[in-house]
Structure formats: structure tokens, C-alpha cells
Amino acid sequence: MTDEPTLPAGPSFGLTFLYYFCGTALLTTLLAVKTLGIGLDTGLPNQYGLVFGVLGGLMGALVNRSTTLTLPISSRKTFRRELDAALAEMGYTEDPDASAEGILVYRRPFIRQLLSGRIYVLITDKQAQISSRKIHMGGVKKRLEANGIRL
Questions:
Q1: pTM of the model
Q2: Residue ranges per domain, the chain?
């Protein structure tokens, strides 16, 4: 076993799909029963729930699954400065209480964090790993490229 820290692995595509599928299917089924006025015994609300559940699960998994970006770096200090600037533009600040074992944790203010999650960063001598939701990684990539970091 090595002493090197590793980034926390967030939910994969499958688990994220299952989460959004179940929530969307249940909500759609209940709304179909209430708004259409037909009972569950007909099977129609369940079919609506299944169709919308698959669509909601796919959309949720494509946008909110966890992903990791690995970047080669030449200087830890320079990269850290550029990363802090890029994440500050997105509204993230480092959470020193949550950071542990060489892993930096960035988060948004409380209300915005409820819907956005956290960004985890592991910086070693030659590379940096950034892990977060897929939708936020696009913003991180764009801002790092704008600051001159090659991806």
C-alpha cells in the first residue's frame, strides 16, 4: 500500500443514471396519476414514468457524472495560482477544513454548493488531477486554457 493520496472517486455513469432514473420515474408516475386521473392499475402512468425516467437518467448522467482531468505541470506554485484564479471566476474557494492528505477541496458558498458539489485537486511534482462533475469540468478546462495552461 502506498502513502500517496488518491482523489475520491465520485459516482460513475451507471450510479448517476440510476439515481436520476429512479427520481424522474417516480415523480413522473405520481404526476401522471394526479394530472391524468387514471390509476396505477392501468399501467399507463408506469409507462410514462419509464420513458421519462430513461430520458431523465441519461440527461442527469451525462451532465452530473464524476470525471477526472489529469494535466502535466511544470511548476506547482504557478499551476496553483492559475487554478485558484480559474476556480475563483467560477465562484469556488478553497475549503481548508475539508482539505486533507494533500488533496485540495474547493467549494462554493453554502446555497450554491447544494446544487454544484465540490472540486477535488491533487497536485504532485509533475501532474495535477482535478475531479468534479462533468458539467463543472468544462468550465475549469476553459478557464485554465484561457490562463495559458495547456490541456
A1: 0.81
A2: 13-63, 66-146
